[in-house]
Amino acid sequence: MLLLHIGSSSIVQWQVFNSTPVDILISDLAFPGNAVNMSQLQWEEIFPVLQSISLDAGMSTYGLSNNTLYDMPRVPTVNGSFLEASVNATTLRVQCGLVPNLTIGMTPFGTGVSQSYFVNFSLGGIDKGSFIVSTTWKDFVRLVFPYSQCTMCPQTIFYVITTGIDVDDSVRDAVAVNLELDTVPAMLNLQENQLASTTDQTASSSSTSWSTWSPGDAIDFSVGMATAMNSISLGVTETTVDMPDNHFFAYTEFDAYMMNLLGIDVASVAAAAGSNSSANPSVMLTPSQFENAVAQTTAKLLWISGQLGESAGGFQRTVGESRATTNALQWRLHLNPIPVIIASLASFTALVLVPFIIGKKSYKQHSQWISGTSVLECLWLEAQSEALDSRLTAIEEPRSDRLRAAGMFDTCLGDTGRSSLTSMAEVE
């Protein structure tokens, strides 16, 4: 039985295996569609939410990864077997550069605490524009509002930075930023809500040296986000710190958020500023640092806008579909062909060899003289056996117990019958 069990278990086995069937899940598209007018969203209401989630490190940001927005499949809470899903991932990339020194003219207006500057710039003599800058201090980053937007750069966001930078002396500190998009298919790990590591989430060119800025492509998204950033700078609260000599240090909450993201302590900068000067900065800022900060901030603002929805000043997300794979345990019957083939060959060989091993059957040697126990056969047996005849003749009363007792003796009926028949044949 042990050999039979081992043999059968090696031939036929039940095996468990993992299958990954594909299912369709409803998905919320994180990136706004073409129907969303970015400049019409209530950014002054969206920005305070950005400040609050930045303080909550444990908050779930499903649909957002650094500077990338990805579709959000609606995974059923009762089913935890979903492994991954195919989604669209849109990465925000930023290109920034410095406006060349020779094309900037600064004209002050106002006096005392209200002193500000018109900053005029031109692009190779083919276009021009201007923005307003208040009194500058060292080691800060300020989003500036275009006073006169150039026709070639409606998609551009302007900053003034007074940190240390690695740049040629011919370039000043007015920064222009272009936003770009890169949408690619990606795989989302539904168990951990993380995009596959192959997704390129680089927000910048990883450059360490500043270069001259040039306008990018004026796509609808970049134009809308430039308008949105400008509306934030006007809509949020501005903080004013009085300084000596009737000057002031002014910045908005959005400026403070950007500076903190860049590792600049606004309070320390304001406390250290003793005069209206941006000389001798103590903070060094590279293009890649600045580009990453702008890209991550923009991505967070877009994600929050979708989370809030139209009723709270954001936008309504579009609903789509995602193909998701699930993990399912299944049983299958496994048949091992090798033992079956070996057993079949052994059985066939045994069938062929049996006649040669035991020989051919002889009818005369193995045929039975007595084929039944009828009355005639019993009479024939009694007549052929002298011992049986003498015992039965001595019984006067043929009761069953006496006949049974008389029939209890050792005799070979086959030999008796065969010897009797042989003697009868000799007589004949």
Q: Could you explain how this protein is built, in words?
A:
The chain is α+β, with helices and mostly antiparallel strands and 428 residues long. It has 12 helices and 17 strands. The relative contact order is 0.18. This is Transmembrane protein.
Summarize the structure.
It contains twelve helices and 17 strands. The protein is of the alpha+beta class.
- The oligomeric state of the chains shown is single chain
What structural category do the secondary elements indicate? alpha+beta
Q: In angstroms, what is the radius of gyration? A: 50 Å
Count of separate structural domains: 3
Report how far the terminal alpha carbons are from each other: 58 Å
Helix content: 25-40%
Strand content: 25-35%
Number of strands: 17
Which residue ranges are poorly predicted, with pLDDT under 50 across at least 5 consecutive positions?
1-6, 424-428
- What gross morphology would you assign? rod-shaped
The number of distinct helices, counting runs of at least 4 residues, comes to 12
Mean pLDDT: 73
What secondary-structure arrangement, pairings included, does this model have?
Elements: H1 2-11, E1 12-19, E2 22-28, H2 43-55, E3 64-65, E4 68-70, E5 72-73, E6 82-100, E7 105-109, E8 116-122, E9 128-134, E10 141-148, E11 156-161, E12 171-189, E13 194-195, H3 220-235, E14 238-243, E15 247-252, H4 253-261, H5 266-272, H6 287-308, E16 319-326, E17 328-335, H7 337-358, H8 363-366, H9 375-384, H10 386-393, H11 400-406, H12 413-427
Antiparallel strand pairs: 1-17, 2-5, 2-16, 3-4, 4-6, 6-12, 6-16, 7-8, 8-9, 9-10, 10-11, 11-12, 12-13, 14-15
